[in-house]
Design brief:
The protein is of the alpha/beta class. Helices cover 46% and strands 13% of the residues. It has a single domain, classed as Rossmann fold (3-Layer(aba) Sandwich). Strands 3-2-1-4-5-6-7 form a seven-stranded parallel β-sheet, sandwiched between helices.
Length: 259
């Protein structure tokens, strides 16, 4: 059953991707541009944004820093004025493996600032626009790392759990207004963030495969968009286990990855 209005035709549709300088955001921007969408790309790396616009002349670059509310608001105003806001994708993210035995408060806070509070700042600017126009779609890029606690995920996992919870609450509040909301929960995707991992990442996929999975899910009106299914379905099953089973099982499964 479709939980959101289906997005099957991207021709002429205005899309704003925050966190589009690499990885999934970059791949999604390319894929949607090829399908005729009017894409606005935002990130801190202005050179990467300019590179995208050079190869996609119809695109708009709106540099921002998700740590700064004024920066987010200015970019939001520029995009809304230039092309409108049909679909907004929050793809900005920060990841550094973190363990309680080497606790780093600064990294804990930075993960919160980028992965969660950046989305909160974005909502302050885009929610009034979407509610006034009575349509649109908000898509938050979370992670299966937020399903349950995992080793080395002390800083990253909680922010993604919060982002998924935020998407659920947004859906409950905005669905009756005709505004779609989706939570995107990828498994391992080959990006600059995951490149730092020193362990084997099961079912690793490319950003292009991830973007294609998202586009297919948008066309079906899905709320929870998780991929690749051969990996994420296993994690969804693990979510249902009682803690007495979950903790020892995951410890055994990840023993090699945590050393």
């Amino acid at each position: 059953m479709a939980l959101n209005p289906k997005i099957e035709n991207w021709q002429g549709r205005s899309v704003w991707i925050v966190g589009a300088s690499s990885g999934i955001g970059w791949a999604l921007a390319h894929a949607l541009s090829e399908r005729g969408a009017k894409v606005a790309v935002s990130a801190r790396q202005e050179a990467k944004l300019d590179e995208f616009v050079r190869t996609h002349p119809q695109a708009l670059a709106a540099r921002l820093d998700v740590l700064q509310g004024d920066s987010v608001h200015a970019a939001s105003l520029a995009v809304a004025t230039h092309q409108g806001l049909d679909v907004v994708v929050y793809c900005a993210g920060h990841y550094l493996a973190q363990d309680a035995k080497a606790y780093d408060e600064a990294q804990m806070v930075l993960h919160q600032e980028v992965n969660y509070l950046g989305a909160v700042r974005l909502l302050s600017s885009v929610l009034p626009v979407l509610q006034a126009q009575g349509f649109g779609h908000l898509s938050l890029i979370s992670s299966v790392a937020g399903y349950r606690g995992l080793p080395k995920s002390l800083a990253y996992g909680p922010t993604k759990a919060a982002l998924t919870h935020l998407a659920e609450c947004l859906y409950m509040d905005l669905h009756e207004l005709g505004i779609g909301v989706s939570a995107v929960l990828p498994g391992f995707v080959s990006t600059p963030l995951t490149a730092q991992n020193t362990f084997e990442m099961p079912a690793l996929i490319t950003p292009e495969v991830a973007a294609s999975a998202m586009i297919r899910a948008y066309a079906k009106g899905e709320f929870e968009i998780h991929f690749p299914k051969r990996f994420t379905r296993v994690l969804k099953i693990l979510r249902c286990l009682p803690y007495a089973w979950y903790f020892p099982l995951v410890s055994r499964m990840t023993q090699g990855a945590t050393k």
